[in-house]
Write a structure and sequence with these properties.
Length: about 500
């Protein structure tokens, strides 16, 4: 769930990239980076923390050039060290800058072949660096002194052939141009935008281009959405500003991640032709219908969202059920999204700093709390306890998404099945575990329809976190068990300690 941006312009682009990344900060709060290109030389600044932690006027002034790439990161593969902040760079061939959102599912296999066959060295445990080296090796094999669009397309085809999983990529090749491509299933989002007006037909000299994870990144700098990249599509913009497009023959039917619409994307984004805002209205409508069918016996006094992702669905539920709606959990905007915090203890500590209740909204009330989803259960359990402390008579909970029962392997931090509260439990057990008087979930088919009613052309989705069906077809039980051992909170804690020690060592050198 990282955020990526790439810009090709006719004036300095660092400020444009910064502003666009600020619109994608919700996709990653662990690290940020920007790389630009000026006269075939790269300028790179990156570090741990939010954009405002990493960049100031001095660092921005060093980012020269009319072409650039930006990244905001949260870790799914690798650790949270400064070394793994993106964009990444390799000097051969030509010099390549690379930023990636997603996760590869065959990293071990690729790493072995990179070392034994390609004889390339990896300096981190990030799968983004793995993919960068696959691309670099494929481009080097073409042997072109100055690569053209056919060389670029062939190199990306090689990436598609060797790399499995979900990914969206933006890259720069020194003296060659800007490149963007999307995985063969279209799991991770990527949009293409244009700014300016061309002259005569075919004249693109005045046009500027951006690729980004979400459409809101385009809007802030005045780019208009041209299209979402298709599965397996690559866009190449050469140094003259000519745009070339190619869609891989290996591509499958588009199957975007369903969780993008539930939680990850901003409501003001359009993802694969679907307004996220309208999708969430539809989710609320579908869930209200289920509540009416199955909860006729449940007396509800007030509907309260768990801000802020569930607010749109909660408003629709209140409207459909003719119930009062109250924003009674006030969010501290300076605390990050607890879902993407690395470690259960840190998530738990942040919840009460993140949300503060308004007591009079709860006293003596039968409250319906609306959440976008229930993943680990940490947040909802703490909130229910907090609401009861305020004097709520009953606490009912509904989720705009189905139970999250299976790990995500395509770039969302849900890797450990043992940490998913719904794994191996029925709804009654879940209600008891989180302390709710009643609990109801959206049906998977209703969730799909909520998006399809917004964009009928979307007929397939990656629904793996809900039903365990992985669209890439290469996920085995052995793979999931191995993944759990590598990425549960205990493993992350060990990795974080190692990263902390490494940072301190470097600081004292």
């Amino acid at each position: 769930m990282c955020g990526i941006v790439g810009v090709f312009g006719h004036s300095p682009v660092s400020a444009v990239i910064y502003e666009s990344l600020s619109m994608l900060q919700h996709r990653g709060q662990d690290a940020a980076g920007i790389a630009t290109c000026f006269e075939d030389r790269f300028y790179l600044e990156k570090g741990n923390g939010l954009l405002t932690d990493v960049f100031d006027a001095e660092t921005m002034a060093r980012l020269l050039g009319d072409m650039g790439v930006g990244h905001v990161r949260y870790p799914t593969a690798g650790c949270a060290s400064v070394a793994e902040a993106q964009p990444f760079y390799v000097n051969s061939p030509y010099g390549i800058i690379f930023a990636h959102n997603g996760n590869l599912t065959n990293v071990s296999e690729i790493v072995d072949s990179l070392f034994r066959t390609d004889m390339r060295h990896l300096n981190t445990s990030s799968d983004s660096e793995v993919m960068l080296n696959v691309f670099a090796h494929a481009l080097a094999r073409r042997g072109a002194v100055h690569p053209n669009e056919f060389d670029i397309f062939a190199a990306v085809e090689e990436v598609h052939r060797r790399c499995k999983g979900g990914y969206a990529v933006v890259a720069m090749v020194a003296g060659v141009g800007l490149i963007a491509f999307r995985d063969l299933h279209g799991i991770r989002p990527l949009v293409f935008g244009v700014r300016g007006e061309g002259g005569d037909p075919g004249d693109t000299r005045e046009l500027e281009y951006m690729v980004a994870s979400e459409s809101v990144a385009l809007q802030v700098s005045g780019f208009r959405l041209d299209h979402d990249l298709a599965p397996g599509e690559v866009i190449f913009i050469d140094m003259e500003g000519t745009v070339y497009r190619h869609v891989s023959l290996q591509a499958h039917e588009k199957a975007p991640c369903l969780f993008e619409f539930v939680y990850l994307a901003r409501p003001d984004s359009v993802v694969d032709g679907a307004s996220v805002y309208q999708c969430r209205i539809n989710m609320g409508a579908k869930l209200a219908e289920k509540i009416q069918r199955e909860w006729a016996h449940v007396p509800i006094d007030v509907v309260i969202p768990i801000p802020s992702t569930s607010r749109i669905a909660a408003q629709e539920i209140a409207t459909r059920l003719n119930l009062p709606y109250r924003d009674a959990l006030v969010r501290n905007r300076y605390v990050g999204r607890t879902f993407i915090m690395p470690g259960q203890a840190q998530r738990r500590q942040s919840i009460r700093r993140k949300l503060n209740p308004i007591p009079q909204a709860f006293q003596g009330k039968k409250v319906l709390l609306v959440d976008d989803s229930i993943v680990r259960g940490t947040t909802i359990r703490e909130i229910i306890a907090m609401v009861r402390e305020q004097g709520a008579e009953k606490v009912y909970v509904c989720s705009a998404a189905p139970p999250v029962r299976f790990p995500n392997v395509y770039g969302i931090d849900m890797p450990a099945r043992s940490e998913l509260i719904a794994s191996g439990r029925d709804v009654a057990q879940l209600a008891k575990d989180i302390g709710a008087d009643e609990l109801i979930f959206q049906d998977l088919e209703d969730l799909k329809q909520a998006i399809q009613e917004t964009c009928p052309s979307l007929t397939h989705f990656d629904t793996s976190v809900f039903d365990g069906v992985y669209v890439t077809g290469d996920i085995t039980e052995e793979y999931l068990n191995t993944l759990e051992q590598k990425r549960n909170d205990a493993a992350k804690h060990t990795s974080d300690v190692a990263s902390h020690i490494t940072r301190n060592l470097y600081a004292h050198l």
